[in-house]
């Protein structure tokens, strides 16, 4: 590849050295992905939050927008320098696009004396996810393990994941709710990306150090002007990640949390949490690793059409544990305990790892301000918010 123009590299791929593109180059990359047939999804500032939605180019990205997060609190702020990825994670994650909140499994329509049955709709266009953080990359891998490499794989999710293109971004401004350094998932983007960016805004300009993670990623750089990353660029990128890691103070030891919760099914602190918990399911809906679903059959009033729909569900809903005669987990106490113990403890038994990636969404988006890390610390008998 010509280092001045970024074109015509026959051997570009996973081993390609880091390169630098400017804002215009990122814009060309996004537009190139759209021309290649991808539905390009990235961060957009809307309704007081940074959410994931369709983007046509860098003009749609939240330039100069940051966020402040704490237990039960999320606010957008202004950030000097015009950075496009100065925010952390909002309420949406890749889960929404790789395993949609609602999908039709089959539908049937009355046809004379019988019915015509149609299977799922044809695959949607592949999605290109721009701005995926390290914690969410790890969450995608967790979902892959659950939905693809389990005894009962989900072919629709597997297809969406195989066709997805991932542009990751290293975090530069972690929120107070982040604890990805405890789970080993950030702030740098780990494996699983096609391209990974580190955004730099300094005296040398607004630019991105780009790491190539796949042959598809290298192909996406074709036609995008770039130059080789210098030692100064790489040092600046390392400082961004190092400074971000140094600002993360929330701590959780996943291995100890597993053991603490496994040993505490009747701990009295569950009652304290239950008095505060609204059982609203916000934590499970924003969690990038939750995977519970329910199936419902829908018919129209005339009896001419029926469909079977899969939708996201939550262990916080009363009907989720319903068996003949009633719900197994009828109290808020039992439902919160189920969620937290599964996420941090019994997930290890199922999948050999923790179900938490340290993104902090469940803390910020809990209307009661319940803090997963603090609750584990309380059950462990440890003081403060540092966790076990």
Can you describe this structure?
The chain has 388 residues and is of the alpha+beta class. The chain has 2 domains: 19-246, no CATH class; 254-380, no CATH class. Helices cover 31% and strands 24% of the residues. It has 13 helices and 16 strands. The chain has helices at residues 23-35, 95-98, 134-147, 155-163, 180-183, 215-220, 231-246, 254-262, 269-276, 282-286, 332-351, 361-364, 372-380, and strands at 19-22, 39-46, 49-54, 65-70, 73-78, 102-111, 114-118, 127-132, 165-169, 195-202, 205-212, 227-228, 293-299, 305-312, 322-323, 326-327. It has an 8-stranded mixed beta sheet with strand order 3-2-8-9-10-11-1-12. A 4-stranded antiparallel beta sheet has the order 7-6-14-13, with no helix packed on it. Strands 4-5 form a two-stranded antiparallel sheet. Strand 2 (39-46) and strand 3 form a beta hairpin. Helix 8 crosses helix 11 and helix 9 (269-276) crosses helix 11. The termini are far apart. Mean pLDDT is 91; it is low at 1-13 and 383-388.
Instruction: Going across the biggest sheet, name each strand in turn.
Output: 3-2-8-9-10-11-1-12
| Beta-strand content bin | 15-25%
Mean model confidence by pLDDT = 91
Number of strands: 16
Class per helix and strand makeup = alpha+beta
- Tell me the number of helical segments per DSSP (H or I, 4 or more residues long): 13
Low-confidence stretches: 1-13, 383-388
Q: Which descriptor suits the 3D outline?
A: globular
Number of domains: 2
Task: Write down the Rg.
Answer: 22 Å
SSE string, helix = H, strand = E? EHEEEEHEEEHHEHEEHEHHHHEEEEHHH
Share of residues in helices: 25-40%
Q: Report the sheet with the most strands, covering strand number, pairing sense and barrel closure.
A: 8 strands, mixed
Distance between the termini: 50 Å
């Amino acid at each position: 590849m010509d280092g001045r123009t970024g074109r015509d590299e026959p051997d570009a791929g996973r081993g390609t050295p880091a390169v630098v593109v400017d804002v215009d180059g990122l814009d060309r990359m996004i537009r190139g992905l759209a021309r290649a047939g991808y539905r390009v999804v990235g961060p957009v500032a809307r309704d007081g939050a940074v959410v994931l939605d369709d983007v046509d180019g860098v003009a749609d990205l939240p330039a100069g927008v940051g966020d402040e997060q704490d237990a039960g609190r999320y606010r957008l702020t202004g950030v000097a320098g015009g950075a496009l990825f100065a925010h952390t994670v909002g309420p949406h994650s890749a889960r929404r696009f790789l395993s949609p909140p609602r999908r039709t499994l089959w539908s049937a329509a009355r046809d004379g004396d019988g019915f015509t049955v149609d299977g799922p709709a044809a695959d949607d266009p592949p999605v290109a996810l721009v701005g995926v953080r390290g914690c969410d990359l790890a969450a995608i891998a967790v979902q892959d393990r659950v939905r693809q490499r389990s005894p009962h794989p989900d072919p629709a999710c597997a297809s969406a994941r195989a066709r997805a293109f991932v542009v990751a971004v290293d975090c530069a401004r972690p929120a107070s709710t982040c604890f990805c350094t405890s789970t080993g998932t950030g702030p740098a983007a780990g494996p699983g990306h096609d391209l990974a960016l580190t955004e730099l805004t300094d005296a040398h300009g607004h630019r991105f150090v780009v790491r190539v993670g796949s042959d598809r990623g290298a192909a996406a750089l074709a036609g995008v002007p770039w130059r080789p990353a210098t030692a100064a660029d790489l040092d600046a990128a390392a400082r961004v990640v190092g400074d971000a890691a140094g600002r993360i103070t929330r701590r959780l030891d996943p291995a100890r949390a597993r053991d603490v919760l496994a040993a505490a099914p009747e701990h009295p602190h569950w009652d304290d949490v239950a008095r505060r918990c609204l059982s609203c399911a916000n934590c499970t809906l924003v969690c990038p690793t939750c995977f519970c679903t329910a199936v419902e059959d829908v018919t129209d009033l005339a009896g001419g059409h029926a469909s079977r729909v899969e939708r996201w569900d939550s262990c916080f809903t009363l009907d989720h544990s319903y068996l003949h005669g009633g719900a197994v987990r009828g109290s808020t106490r039992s439902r919160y305990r189920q969620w937290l113990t599964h996420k941090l403890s019994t997930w290890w038994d199922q999948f050999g790892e923790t179900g938490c990636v340290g993104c902090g969404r469940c803390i910020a988006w809990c209307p009661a301000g319940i803090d997963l890390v603090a609750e584990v610390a309380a059950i462990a008998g440890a003081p403060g918010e540092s966790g076990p």
